[in-house]
Design a protein that fits this description.
The structure holds 2 protein chains of 2 kinds. Chain A is mainly α. Chain A has helices at 2-21, 25-35, 45-57, 65-78, 84-94, 100-107, 115-121, 127-146. The chains are: A mainly alpha, B alpha/beta. At the A-B interface, helix 1 and helix 5 of A face helix 1, strand 2, helix 2 and helix 5 of B.
Chain lengths: 149, 501
């Protein structure tokens, strides 16, 4: 069961990242749907990952605007596909609202300080890891979307 | 391999206990694998692909907890249930609690009104969120900056929504009383009110005269100020004018700023329905020339709206003799408008009255000051409620003051109100009776008759029932008045008699 979930999570994540880079909005929506509500825990792991991405997309100057738009659309239509807590957390992250520890982490990224990241990892049982994974994926995508300078 | 599945409806565990349950389930005798997750579509799909989606899991919803166990002994189901019980002291089935207004609107798409009662510093922000989610708003909170009030009311106006408040304590929408309100019969009288207890009093008088309420729209106490400009009262009049269930409209307020009064009264002409105006101490000419019906008192307002020809018999004048020293009335009120109306009854008779809500700064008293001459106190005003609940809920300050006033040899009578209804104290008379007895005893020991006058604002439909509260007061030797207006008139008569003794 764990293996099957892990596989589904990895596939969903790869589909979503590829779709964002290809600027294929229909595929982005499919990728989001593949992750929404997926995984063990109170906030399913797929949702935690989406929360991380959503928070990056709310930063000023983000290139993830089209993804954020797709995520908003999917949430509006399919919010019943996940738990109310998860749906609310993702929706708030899209508006740039999240736990203080996540904001602290983003604010202090340039300082190469690991303490804020450790505090994020301490969220829930596995949620912190999954959100951090979403944040890192979002930052990688930002770099890819900007291209080589 | 056998598969056992348990679904817990609408159950949340914090994630750490959830994982601990999962770990322990994995450690149960003979269990090959245990899986704990929410019953979302995607999770069910994964189980389905593995051929593990048992019938009971198929039915699981996105708020339900699924526990799936492969293997285990014959008693594995009981063992899992035991883990859940031990780990879930506070969890279980319960009503949904929404943490944000947006989530509540999404969860209850049919909702169209939000009642907001958070600290004033945050109230404006929450009200804005509600309006942006197309919800009408009743904002109970006070201490919202006036600039924010104007911005919220303009936004609501542009969206065609009601913005009742800030500082709005009373409304009745579609026969449901919100915050402080009384149980009144449904009917055809619509009320727009800037004063909470004034609105309660008028709605209760309408009920007692045989009428009923279609809608009672509160505006908040500052709506008719120069800054706010009566935005909500004007929108309220228009809403009731357009409401087929409303046949007559009553406006209730303290006197508005003059420019705002003109704007509000100008709405009467286009309302297409009779409009009765009760602006405490307001001008008859302004109302009449605008085409409205002028009400002299709260009782008058209800009578004009329900049955203009009704004869209301006055209470017999007070008969007891006072000592030459007993010359003054002390009013101890929970309701601001009730205090105001009684105070105006004395002021209009030419008496000097001291109060914490006096307009004349020379006669204004603070919460800590002793009474002077005729003193009428509104215990619901900010200086008395700072840091404590409203006296409609917490009567302690007023009880202490009642006994204190009884010791003053200059006092002829003490006038009090008792407010029944939703949100109010469950037995306002009962909680006051010991202090009334004590006050009477103190006066009697000093050789004086102390007149105590009580008015119970409530209806036969309220809990506790009006008649029971009145009977309890009468049994304690209290003279019971039958309306806020009559309370003022009776206080004035006692003042006359006491001054002439």
């Amino acid at each position: 069961m764990d293996a099957a979930l892990g596989r589904a999570l990895r596939e969903g994540r790869e589909r979503l990242e590829a779709a964002i880079l290809a600027a294929d909005q229909a595929a982005v929506r499919q990728g989001i749907l593949a992750l929404l509500g997926l995984g063990p825990g109170l906030t399913p792991a797929g949702d935690d990952f989406l929360t991380g991405l959503a928070l990056v997309s709310a930063l000023s100057g983000s290139r993830l605007g089209p993804f954020a738009g797709a995520l908003r659309e999917v949430l509006a239509v399919h919010q019943k596909r996940t738990t109310p807590l998860s749906a609310t957390t993702i929706a708030e992250a899209l508006d740039g609202r999240a736990r203080a520890s996540l904001h602290t982490l983003l604010d202090t990224l340039p300082h190469h300080d690991l303490a804020p990241a450790r505090r994020v990892l301490a969220i829930g049982h596995t949620s912190g890891t999954d959100i951090l994974s979403g944040l890192a994926a979002g930052l990688h995508l930002e770099r890819e979307l900007r291209g080589s300078l | 391999m056998s598969v056992t599945a348990v679904v817990k409806k609408n159950t949340y565990f914090d994630s750490v206990s959830l994982m601990s349950i999962s770990t322990k389930a994995n450690g149960l005798d003979g269990v090959k694998q245990a899986f704990v997750a929410m019953g979302t579509e995607m999770n069910k799909e994964v189980l389905n692909n593995l051929g593990l989606l048992a019938a009971e899991l198929r039915e699981a919803g996105n708020g339900d907890l699924m526990i799936v166990v492969e293997g285990g002994s014959d008693t594995v189901l009981e063992e899992i249930e035991a883990l859940l019980v031990r780990k879930a002291p506070a969890a279980g089935e319960s009503a949904v609690t929404y943490r944000t207004i947006a989530a509540a609107k999404q969860g209850e798409p049919g909702a169209n009104l939000a009642v907001i009662a958070v600290n004033g510093a945050y109230a404006g922000r929450e009200a804005r969120k509600a309006l942006e989610n197309d919800l009408n708003v009743m904002l109970f909170s006070d201490n919202v900056p006036v600039g924010e009030e104007v911005a919220l009311k303009r936004l609501a106006h542009d969206k065609g929504l009601l913005m009742m408040g800030p500082d709005c304590g009373t409304a009745i929408i579609n026969n449901v009383a919100l915050c402080f309100g009384n149980a009144v019969r449904p009917g055809t009288v619509g009320i727009v009110a800037a004063s909470g207890t004034g609105a309660q009093e008028v709605s209760v008088r309408v009920h007692s005269l045989g009428g009923g309420i279609s809608q009672l729209i509160g505006t908040g106490g500052r709506d008719l100020s120069e800054e706010v400009g009566g935005i909500m009262m004007i929108d309220g009049i228009r809403a009731l004018a357009a409401d087929p269930g409303t046949e007559v409209i009553i406006l209730v307020s303290k006197p508005p700023a003059p420019s705002v009064e003109r704007k509000v009264l100008a709405e009467i002409a286009t309302a297409g329905k009779p409009v009765v105006v009760y602006f405490i101490g307001g001008s008859e000419e302004a109302v009449t020339s605008a085409g409205g019906t002028f009400a002299r008192s709260s009782l008058d307002a209800a009578r004009l709206a329900v049955s203009p020809d009704a004869e209301i018999t006055p209470l017999p004048a007070p008969s007891r003799a006072f000592t030459p020293e007993q010359r003054f009335i002390r009013g101890l009120f929970c309701g601001g408008t009730l205090c105001d109306e009684s105070m105006y009854a004395l002021l209009n008779a030419g008496a000097d009255v001291w109060s914490n809500i006096q307009k004349n700064p020379e006669r204004r008293l603070g919460a800590g000051s002793p009474s002077v001459g005729h003193t009428f106190l509104d215990f619901g005003d900010d200086d008395f409620t700072n840091g404590r609940p409203h006296p409609m809920i917490d009567p302690s300050l007023r009880l202490a003051r009642l006994v204190e006033e009884a010791r003053d040899p200059q006092v002829a009578a003490i006038v009090m109100d008792f407010i029944l209804g939703f949100g109010a104290h469950e037995d306002p008379v009962g909680v006051t009776l010991p202090a009334i007895e004590e006050a009477k005893r103190v006066a009697a020991e000093a050789g004086r008759h102390l007149e105590i006058v009580g008015y119970v604002l409530g209806t036969d439909l309220d809990a506790p029932v009006l008649a029971d509260q009145v009977a309890a007061l009468e049994a304690a030797g209290v003279t019971v008045t039958r309306s806020s207006t009559e309370t003022g008139q009776y206080a004035r008569e006692i003042a006359r008699k006491a001054q002439n003794a």
